[in-house]
Amino acid sequence: MLLSDLDMGAFVREKSTRGDRLAPRLPAGAQPLLGLDELQWQTLRSWLKPTGESSKWTWLIENSQVNEWLHCESLLCRLLQAGWCELIRHAGKGAAQNHYLPYKVVWRDKEGLRRALGWSNQPEKEDLKRQWSLWQPRHPWLQEIAATCRQMSMQVDTSRRRLRLLQGLDDWLGEERFGTERQFSQVVFQHTKALAKADKEWLAETGLDLEACGISPHTPYFYLAACLDCYDDEGLLLRSSLLRQGNALPAETVRDIKQVSGLVREIQVVENFSVFQTLTRQLVAEVADVLVVWVPGQPHSRWRKAFSHLVSLCDAPVYVACDLDPAGVAIALQVGQLVQEQGQAWQPWRMHVDDEKLREYNWPLEGSDRRHIQSLFKQSLPDELKRLLEAMERTGYKLEQEILFLE
């Protein structure tokens, strides 16, 4: 059956200058859907998947089982006859201006049609909604994200996956675990490769840093360089000849160090890994009395504990150099707090720059950066970091730390 075969007496027709709207006189589902073949049943299932209350005709054709006009038009006629939808048509152009072409299908009771066909996922939606409302994350990082998800309209599969992901992450954080993305994926999804790129992108959009949660692409290590011999309870653990070249140690190994031998004039903490490598090369060339540490973005609790332990062993001031952006300021403050808890002094290092330098490399602030700046202003800030935030706000630009160490 085609549209030209329909009995127009069975429809209320609303005409306009551009086209018309055909609305069945029957209520939705007043007649059964008859005469559908298997391909049309499969096409109808595809048409009913989106959540919207209307669909453009071109989209319906593109998402049909055989992508043919006649196949789709025949199915549309059955839906109109049964009262499940209305049809908006647009007038043709030129010689065909009196010929009305389908433009948009408006569903009268999409969920009712799903239920009638046994395809409804509404019970599962309600159950997921109940699970979201009952789940209260223990870790403070997840509380706002969970509250947002409760208010969102999501596909069933998306809602189920995000709930499972956040619940697994809550347990991971509560147990202070750390490991690779594959290890986290195995714990949460029982498969090492189940954590998808879309999962990581969504978590990043919520402002959650996987590294800070103790989840990294590869096994996380504590990177340091120094001309120090390190001892544990059993004797010599690490020779200075190894450490001064720069080394990556498990965080637990750093915490096993009980004593260091060698002069440490200052501790330099840097966020950018290439800067860490630059400083390490200088240390080797000059055999300097400096301890260089790389801070990996938002540091995990195991890194923080290892760093605090190292600071307690080396009675030396700490200099912190991070990216000249709001995130870098936040990281510097975190590191500084750890130093203060050990009763030692710290200060920002090479985190000041004039306005021209900020503008020169053309890295503009984003809206999230500006909001972050305002939240940082509410904290107690060293003068240097306060001036940096004011300069970023004034110029609208930020700067990568690496640029200042290339000169």
Low-confidence stretches: none
Please count the beta strands (DSSP E, at least 2 residues each).
16
**Residue share in β-strands:** 15-25%
Helix/strand-derived category reads: alpha/beta
Intertermini distance? 76 Å
Per the principal axes of the C-alpha atoms, what is the gross shape?
A: elongated
Number of alpha- plus pi-helical segments: 18
Largest sheet descriptor: 6 strands, mixed
Mean pLDDT: 89
Major sheet strand order: 11-8-14-13-15-16
Helical fraction: 40-55%
What is the CA-based Rg, rounded? 31 Å
List the helices and strands and how they pair.
Layout lengths: L10 E5 L3 E6 L13 H10 L6 E3 H6 L6 H13 L3 E7 L8 E8 L2 H7 L5 H13 L5 H12 L4 H19 L4 E2 H9 L7 H9 L9 E2 L5 E4 L3 E4 L2 E4 L1 H4 L3 E3 L1 H6 L2 E3 L4 E5 L2 H14 L3 E5 L6 H13 L4 E4 L4 H16 L4 E3 L6 H6 L6 H11 L5 H13 L5 H5 L2
